[in-house]
């Protein structure tokens, strides 16, 4: 008998900080991509309304705010809600749905890494 099992170490000096940084980086990149996507979406889909542009800007701002709040335990859940909202914005334009799918997959991977590292 070897005694109680020790939790598996990740090899990181500060695993919580590393995971928070991953979440913040993911949301920051998402916010940046959303802002940079506005003009190409307008050029490709001339029917992009002011409400759709406002929605994209609001989602980008929300992503940037959440990136700065990753120390809060609820921020991971809010990030998941953000991905759902981005997927729903696909009703405004098909390219937003594509971005929503891509970032939902990236966010899912970040959640997976969080679960593996932190347990």
Summary keywords:
0% strand, mainly alpha, single chain
State the end-to-end CA separation.
24 Å
User: What share of residues are in beta strands?
Assistant: under 5%
- Overall pLDDT, averaged? 88
User: What overall form do the CA principal axes indicate?
Assistant: elongated
- Domains (count): 1
Helix fraction, binned, reads over 70%
Report Rg: 17 Å
Low-confidence stretches: none
Q: What can be said about the biggest beta sheet?
A: none
Oligomer: single chain
Q: What's the helix count?
A: 4
Total number of strands: 0
**H/E order of the elements?**
HHHH
**Structural class by helix and strand composition:** mainly alpha
In short:
The protein is mostly helical. It has helices at residues 15-44, 50-68, 75-88, 94-118.
Describe this structure in words.
The protein has 119 residues and is mostly helical. It has one domain. The chain contains four helices and no strands. It has helices at residues 15-44, 50-68, 75-88, 94-118. Helix 2 (50-68) packs antiparallel against helix 3 (75-88). The protein is elongated and about 60 Å long.
């Amino acid at each position: 008998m070897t005694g109680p099992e020790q939790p598996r170490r990740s090899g990181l000096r500060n695993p919580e900080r590393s995971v928070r940084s991953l979440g913040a980086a993911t949301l920051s990149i998402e916010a940046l991509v959303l802002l940079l996507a506005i003009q190409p979406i307008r050029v490709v889909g001339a029917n992009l309304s002011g409400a759709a542009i406002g929605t994209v800007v609001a989602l980008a701002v929300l992503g940037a705010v959440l990136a700065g709040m990753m120390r809060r335990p609820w921020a991971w859940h809010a990030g998941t809600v953000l991905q759902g909202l981005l997927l729903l914005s696909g009703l405004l334009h098909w390219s937003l749905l594509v971005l929503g799918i891509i970032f939902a997959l990236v966010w899912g991977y970040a959640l997976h890494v969080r679960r593996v590292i932190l347990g």
